Amino acid sequence: MANIITFTQTDTILTYFPTFLRLLSLNSERSEVFVIFADMEQTQKTPAEIFAAKALATQVRKELTENILPYWATKMIRPSGILLGRISGTEEADEDAPVGGIMTARLLWTFASAYRVLYGEADACKASQEEAQGYIDVAMKAKRLIIDKFYDPEYGGTYWSLRPDGTPLDTKKQIYAIGFAIYGLAELYRAYGDEEALEYAVKLFHSIEEHSFDTEKDGYFEAFNRDWSPIEDMRLSDKDANESKTMNTHLHVLEAYTCLYRVWKDKLLEERLEGLINIFTGRILGLDGHLHLFFDDDWNCNYDIVSYGHDIEASWLLHEAALVLGKPEVTARVEALVPAVAKAASEGFTAEGGMIYESVGHKAVDGTRSVETDADRHWWVQAETVVGNFNLWHHFSSQEGLENALMCWEFIKANIIDKTNGEWFWSLRADGTANRKDDKAGFWKCPYHNGRMCLEIIERLSPRP
Known about the structure:
With 465 residues, the chain is mostly helical. The chain has helices spanning 13-26, 47-75, 101-119, 129-150, 175-192, 195-211, 247-263, 267-284, 308-325, 328-345, 379-396, 399-415, 448-461; strands at residues 3-7, 33-37, 86-87, 93-94, 99-100, 161-162, 168-170, 173-174, 223-224, 245-246, 294-295, 305-307, 358-363, 369-374, 377-378, 427-428. 51% of the residues lie in helices and 10% in strands.
């Protein structure tokens, strides 16, 4: 018997969201669950909305080609081919900083994607051949670093970091970082047809599947020593809990597998991509529409943390994964969840158009709960807020989604973009000052979130040849 849920107002989505998730779990044997959004019909976009969206695309294209990409191409590529490891928030180059695998892979993805999107445009804004060659040159340098320096020829996978001379520094195998290497290499093949890039992306996929996939309880373990033996400290960063499974790693393995599946229609990859979607809808997504962040082997979560940036980022990455997978029943199930996840994320959206970082709940001995809020507006959270809300307009015709995307872009222009030295500040602090303490470019500060924001808007509005 089919279960039917009808939402008559967008604001009621979260009210009935727990019921919907329970029905999904009860209907794991592919019984039918129909969700109807009575006020979210695929209405035709108005001329004013399309005009505003195209104006946004024009502005972010300028930001990408005149600020973000030139900053990285001119300041982070050393003559040796090894990337500079870090530029401080006060614009000082750190020649002794380690070179991160995540930064390198994200640089590869960004410049490969810029080549594909900007040089492939059919309109008058198409990148010149010289600009396009510049993008692919940077991508190729990043590819060589990943294959020649980060890739472990003995055990497979990629190292966590290199010394400035290109020799291995930290040789642990962090699945999050390996996922990003797949993401960048697959995008290079998609953009440029580079067979070696695809070869290594597939090798890394098999390394993850052989060593990280939990065949008993599903999902992916977080990290290992170089030889894939268990590692005591599995944390991605000092901020994270030392747990064996995390939302963040699963989100970016999902992202990487989605990109790889676009160009390599492998049966096991298809199964794992669908499995990752099911992990998000069945285990990671909470009844309140927020994502749980840290889990033990058995998928128990004992943390009360809301990461607004990850919520809004997941809303569109999960949607993208379902669309690329191409199974109508999976797409329908995911599209029923996307507005609710985005709605939950909007709890962190401020009146001036920025998205705060996170909130952490604390439970006292007497049972009372208090909430500690980090109200800094981080660069990557703002970028994902633009894309996630733009996705609501692009696929669900949500006028509010477009308005929020435009508001957040105005907030970025006013507060996050460094108009003097280029690129974006790490964050706008809660007190309204620009954060110049944290990196401008480095291990975690890459052109991926802000570059991808620009590319997503451009590609969604550009006619394809």
